[in-house]
Amino acid sequence: MRIAKITATTVTTAALALGLAACGSSQEPSSSPSAAAPASGPKYAGKTLSVWRLGDSNPAAAKYMDELNAEFKKQTGADVKLEWIPWPQVADKFAAAATGTGPDVTEIGNDQVPMWQSQDALTPITDIAREGDRAQIPQNLYGYETVDGEIYAVPWGAGARAVLYRKDWFEDLKIEVPKTWDELVAAAKKIQKEKGEGVDGFAFNGGSDANHLLAAFAWAEGGEYAVKEGDKWVGKLTEPGFAKGFETYTGLVSGGLSSKANLTLNTVDIRKRFANDKVAMYLTAAWDLPGIEEDSKGKLKGDKLGFFPLPAKTGGVAPSFFGGNDIALWGGTKEPDLGKEYIKLATSKTWADRYAKEGGLLPVYPDTLAALNEDPAQGAFAQAFAKAKAFPADANWAEADATKAVLQNAARAVIEGKKDTTTALADANKELEEILNQ
Q: What are the structural domains of the chain?
């Protein structure tokens, strides 16, 4: 496998994105979708562009894509063949497409860009990434997307996570929204006492996206996964900060807040249990709300649910993963010019703001993001995003995170009593270094 060298563009906290809100006004006025129309539109009439969206479709997302694709056809004359790829199938689908036939354009998780670029699965789009409206997107949001001086994806929507909770249960039991970790634990235990032992007070995530929860605990204690020293990644899992966060994470199960029977569940699985009255709180984002309403057959809607920032055990708000979804041009596309026109339209301010708002993400345009700080629905995410951090920006991180599940296996070994924390983290640290440095 060809390992790409990540540029010095750093993936820092998203506070810069918030701080640049005032700079947005110095840019040229945002173009409307129709104003962004390419002059050569008619030449694409009769062509079809294949586009992948990740996750499960829902009415809001389907409506957005229908309208985006209709605007694209209006501007270019081309049709769009849209396919939704469920998150649990994304890695396999991308792997198969990397050696065969893939889409022309795809949605992609920002932290996945280095890995798939290293497989030649993405085409550079440097020429369009910073033009037009996209010049307003803060440079620090291009940390994962920039490899060896080329840009391989454009940020589409930013991701931060907060605690989703049963607002109706809190009100019934006269529980105040937790502002500290101790208050969260007390709330979880009170709910379990009243709702039964089968309910997770705060759900443990040990599945494919487990590190989003573990990282929040570890980063809050000052821990890191690994740090680049020269040309080598050095693991930091055995250092005190990470170890403390890891103990808080595994303590969700050993402390009884989450059932030991649910060690391998990811956010999608937890969402379904939440929709069926089996979870009181878990770490996620607003994109879960449509699925919860569907899974609960309409019983759980917005008025019964709420979000609050995850409290750090050390005080204040715990950092969130600096995540987000990008849009990229596939490496094997036979329609690169048409694909770029699609990316330009989708990431224009009008359509990118809609993508974020209607998809439960944070906007990548600074002025729109800053406006959410005091928003009742999105304020919790804006606060978390202001302290956001990223996983190691390396092409092999996805192997450690998803394929080999290094930290998930370490946590499971501790919870099941097969290893103590010190041994589990020492073993995981060695494996993480081997993967990142291969």
A: 15-159+322-374 (3.40.190.10), 162-319+404-436 (3.40.190.10)
